[in-house]
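Translate sequence into structure tokens.
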Amino acid sequence: MPDLKEFKLPDVGEGLTEADIIRWHVQPGDAITLNQVLVEIETAKSVVELPSPYAGVVTDLLVAEGATADVGTPIIRVDTSPGGASTPAEAVEQREISQTEDLIPAPPVESAVEPGMIGSPAPKAERQAVLVGYGVKLGSTARRARKTVPARRPEPPPRRAPEPVPAGKPLRQNGSANTGALAKPPVRKMARDLGVDLATLTGTGPDGVITRDDVERAASGIAPTDHVPAMVMPAGPIAAGPREERIPIRGVRKHTAAAVAASAFTAPHVTEFLQIDITQTMAATARLRELPEFADVRVSPLLLVARALIVAATRHPMINSSWDEAAQEIVVRHYVNLGIAAATDRGLIVPNVKDAQAMNMPELAAALVQLADTARAGKATPADLSGGTITITNVGIFGVDSGTPILTPGEAAILAFGQVKDAPWVVDGELAVRKVCTLALSFDHRIVDGDLGSAVLRDVGAMLTDPLTMLAWS
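Result follows.
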């Protein structure tokens, strides 16, 4: 007898409520081992690989790629009985059933039926994340009960050319009453997102199935001339491509939007600016690169900026604090978890170096390099992204002089480091060309008064103007 186990989406972060399924590493019929990577998910903070808590054979993927699932929702079903779906024939049979069910025509949008669901409508409040092509079943979840499903598959309608589109009638519709259209759930979702009515399309896939290319062509107003007779196009000039694009707000982007909005309208921001001569810091950076202790790491001016901010936070602990609204207390941290804002393909994230105040310069340099590489690879973990106390954003790498950065939620200050460039500067009463940059410090005015913010910015500027000052204050 099968011993079916369901793996529920876990909370892999602090208070995670949902995650997006990015990519499945297994398919129904695959034999899996304990701790084998099953799936990549994108949370509000990062991309995480989930290992299997079971060994056995995959029977069902309960949530499709691209879908969002709540924490606690079953996402995969595994047969853990000895042998499981042990024969290749059974594995193939399971795959064929799944693929067949995926082609069941979509129900009308106005009904309360979940996309891909078979049977009676369910109230929206009870909707559950399910495997594409499968419905929410009451009672037994045994695999064998679905062997009758292929008998319910309707005969595909005869393929025919679409009716000519009257002049001026757009191919793209606001609604999406996709009644009777043959399309897999991911394609139906794409059609809904793009505002394409599947009922107006003729599929170019096997048996008339509507494909992603069909939906994309319809969204851009391009007819599939290689497969069906030419359509009468709307009168007037033809656009070269879609005029608009809609991108779902999810994952890191969704979290970032909520975080910066909450920060901007919760903490009263003040930003101060200071332009400094950073010539000696640039020379010190070049000298550090030649030392054997830094032979295996990349050294940039950001290393000295980081050290300067750490020293300033040690000298002025209130800049390294947070506001606890619920307890009506200011939490002063006597450690520095230094955040470095990083722009990634998935949006802005702020991983942090834990206990940066306890590191020497080579250790800090190595930690910064590892942090940057991990963030760019999309491998930052929830632990990397949690618990920061103060942040640096390096806007100079984009050729920007300065800005007014928004505080990372839960922190009292953020320092923006602008581009380093040659500029005229007065040195000992004479004009000279020096390496100059602009620093911008934003701080929470509930915690940090103007004199404290100015003192911190002045100290950071002094240490970057003359790095020997950093040694004297450390």
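Note: The chain has a mean pLDDT of 77.
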